[in-house]
Amino acid sequence: MAASRRARVAVLGSAQTDLRAAHSDRQHVDLIAEAVASALLGTGLRMTDVDFVIDSGSDFLDGRSISNCGFLGAMGANHKEESRVEEDGLWSAMYAATKIASGSASVGLVVAYSKSSESDPRNYWSSLAEPFTQRPVGLDQHSAAGLFAQRYLARYGIDPQALSAVSDRAWAAAARNPQVDADEDMLRDESWNEFVAAPLRRRDMARPVDGAVAVVVTSEHVARQFDRRPVWISGMGSAMDQHFLAAREPTSLPAATAAAGAAFRMAGAASARDFDVVEVSANSTVGELMVLESLGLAEAGTAIGLYGDSAPSGLNLSGGALPADVVMATGLVRLHEVASHLAGRTDRDPAGAKTGLAHGTGGLGMQNHCVITLETS
Amino acid sequence: MTNIAIVGTGQTVHARRRIDVSQAGLAREAAVEALLDAQLTMDDIDSVVVASGPAMFGAVNQPEKWLVDALGARFKPVVRVTSGGGTGLAGALQGMNQIKAGVARRVLVVAYDKLSEGALQASISTLYDPFWGREFAVGIMGFSAAYWRARMDRLGHTEEAAAMVAVKNRKNSMLNPKAHVKKEVTVDEVLASRPLCWPIKALDVPPISDGACAVILAADDDAEAITSTPAWIRGMAYYSEADNGPHRSMLQSEPLKIAASRVYEKAGVTNPRRQFDVAELQEPYTCFELSYYEGLGLCEEGGAAELIASGATEMTGDIPVNPSGGCMGANPIGATALIRLAEAAMQVTGKAGAHQINGAELALVQAGGGWANLRGVAVVGSTRG
């Protein structure tokens, strides 16, 4: 469908808490309330202007059924329309954008959070596997990533040692990101080189962290009332692959390609290379290479080349998901990051950036993918 | 202005324990029936919304990722919405927004729960705050009983009145081929049934079921091209109320009132009792149906006991409520809201079979979840309005 038919949706504000291995002195509601209040700050909008709230979190991680119920107050959802999308927060952003584009509402708040330090994230991952054939053999996020990595590295003849370029760059970028508790020396500790799922080591795996993120989306009419530089959602798409790992493509992520294709068609973009700022999610270093290739940022088997001297300047400036995986919020953090750069709200903004791409993923072995593209006018 | 219609519905055979299918197979059974009803295939479907109760109910985290294979939805947008007992309406609402926003033409909404595979009340108990609420709030029953007790004094929602709800809905279930429980009861039997958490007694409580429901949504001319009998969604909303604080008055549900007023305004409903031909209300306990009569404006505040006693909400009354038998007939929690919506669509399109209300043109749907703090309302009609 032509982009012109669709009402424009603006990202008017966004914010995240610090992403830390453990926010042991703060509860879920504290993190959520901080992100929500900070996202509204400076937009000119108040909580009473918000029509609806769409949120992402996990009952399994929270140890709590219908866990959104416990956080409605912190999310400012009292006596408002609210829905829990139990996917990465980027899917919540997509829902919120359709709700505004449909004309059903003018101002929406998107919230995503995880506090995996309060539970065992391995249980979260293993409970994603269907219970009859996959769960009993012990599949979890790490083993799934390892299985993909073995096949990917073998097929393209890549030395596993080369993967350190991916993690080194991610952690170096995270060290420059004031909202991630990372420093560049961290990976020097030998424990980061322990094998987790051969050929992947601990340094290759996304590190689960605690945090929350909130994004304010509005109709064009509302966005024009404020002098804040609006960032527009230009395209969005999502797709889910089949569940059984053995039946999936061994070295690529066709669902990521499908999600990106839908978003690019809507945005009128030819390829992922059209975007100035790109933030992607991934479960591991090899996962990140596969995401970049499946989105079209590199040919199959060549994404490792993006980590050399010719690295694109606008790729995962935040450090991406490897140093800071907020589990249910990682994709929405990517959207916040891209929107902040395009709006000129960080001191790390690439000069002249006008377009951006945010990617989120979920499921065992990155089963589903979501892409939202953004632009400034 | 885009008008959305339900162009196909499907339901499984609901049962206490469906050992013949997995969760994925259960959802597929409903989806296949809905596709057959609409004469469509998965190739015609742009997007899938899966709605289910809390994932702990079935002990599979993010089950849509397992269901995708059985639903034939590989590489399509698939997203799950979860919102307790009302999740089917929350899911349908997301589907409607996708169509109205132009990102999908046809959306399959599937809702299910396979409650035989998890520890239901233990999972429900985890609703409550781990520090302040979990010690004394066991399951959802104690909470519900306390508020019913308060409504007895203030609104006259007597045990007898609630028992009449059980009698009516169980009687209606006899006519529903999909119902899981088919056994008529009397008011005396309900009153004499075993107290579980007084005033809630065994026969005030619906069964626990395995089951699924699916609806297919489409818009305007496309809906009319698919079927000669689209059921038009004239309005739908889903509102929340924060926290379990002492300021909450559970005598009347605020989010229900907000949702009803928004939807009624959109659908042009000013006199619900007179305008609606039929209602499908999700009643997790009998006392809730009484409460909803008032919250939805089918009678004045404090008038619910009189309304049920008058027979007006029976199949032969002027405002039949739950001709399907409601949750008393089948209660796969995560699917119950979508079942109410599907049943309403069946009523206004004349497809409800033995439990059809003759000439029904406008139907009211209510469903909710959480700790009685998530409330949804929908209006479905035989015309666009």
How many strands of chain A?
Answer: 11
Unreliable segments of chain A (pLDDT under 50, ≥5 consecutive)? none
How is the biggest beta sheet of chain A arranged? 9 strands, mixed
Query: How many structural units, i.e. domains of chain A?
Result: 1
Task: Report the average pLDDT across residues of chain B.
Answer: 95
Overall pLDDT of chain A: 95
Topology-level CATH name of one domain in chain B: Peroxisomal Thiolase, Chain A, domain 1
Q: Largest sheet of chain B at a glance?
A: 9 strands, mixed
Strand order of the largest sheet of chain B: 3-2-4-7-1-8-11-10-9
Q: State the secondary-structure class of chain A.
A: alpha/beta
Features:
heterodimer; A: 377 residues; alpha/beta; Peroxisomal Thiolase, Chain A, domain 1; nine-stranded mixed beta sheet; two-stranded antiparallel sheet; globular; B: 385 residues; 15 helices
Task: Explain what this protein looks like in three dimensions.
The complex is a heterodimer of chains A (377) and B (385). With 377 residues, chain A is of the alpha/beta class. Chain A has one domain: Thiolase/Chalcone synthase (Peroxisomal Thiolase, Chain A, domain 1), CATH 3.40.47. Chain A has 11 helices and 11 strands. Chain A has helices at 28-40, 59-62, 68-71, 89-101, 121-126, 141-156, 164-176, 220-223, 254-267, 285-295, 330-342; strands at 9-16, 52-56, 81-85, 107-115, 195-197, 200-201, 210-219, 231-240, 277-279, 355-362, 368-376. Chain A is globular and about 55 Å long. Chain B has a domain at 4-120 and 208-226: 3-Layer(aba) Sandwich (Peroxisomal Thiolase, Chain A, domain 1). Chain B contains 15 helices and 11 strands. By secondary structure, chain B is an alpha/beta fold. At the A-B interface, α3, β3, α4, β8 and α9 of A face α2, α3, β3, α4 and β8 of B. β3 of chain A pairs antiparallel with β3 of chain B, so a sheet runs across the interface.
